[in-house]
Amino acid sequence: xxxxxxxxxxxxxxxxxxxxxxxxxxxxxxxxxxxxxxxxxxxxxxxxxxxxxxxxxxxxxxxxxxxxxxxxxxxxxxxxxxxxxxxxx
Length: 89
Fold this sequence. Notes:
This protein is an alpha+beta fold. It has one domain. The chain has five helices and two strands; from the N terminus they run βαβαααα.
């Protein structure tokens, strides 16, 4: 039997004010929350999405270990003004 792995978390940034406000509009209080990734997430991605042959064969980009360092910037960039406007009530 495989032994359980301890889940480790890494913060990739706080929830921004516009997201906190949008969540509040639907009854959620996420003020002070962090966006996090876990070691299980990283293990899954590396196991399933780092094989060059498989990923290229399905038209996907291969994930490399150093790509995880880029997540905070990609996350901030992915929510542009259009998404902020869409989530605002």
